[in-house]
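Pilot study result, target chain (105 residues):
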Amino acid sequence: MKIYWSWKSFPEWGELPENERKMIWKKCLTKTLRHWQTWVAFFGCIFCIALGITLSHCWHGFISSIIGGIVSGAIGGFILGQVITTIGRPHIREYLKSHNQVCPD
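Predicted structure:
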């Protein structure tokens, strides 16, 4: 599985200008909310944050609970982002093909 660090690096985009990429991504992002995998990853992200806050607070106190929440939130957010991009890429390809734009595979 390839990791995409940002949606700008999708091969489907080709040479599209950035404003068009944003418009397409906004339209396709809402379609990812229809998949159960997105919701599992979302609640997993929230669970990661809560777990990070709880564990770090039990061991060290308030300041470390904030740091633990940030670190665990970053981990959960990264996983959520990977799930959304994996689910969103087929929707991007479908959109580009329906609008007669070249879509590299």
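One observation from the pilot: Residues 35 and 87 are 8 Å apart (CA to CA). A full batch analysis is planned for the follow-on phase.
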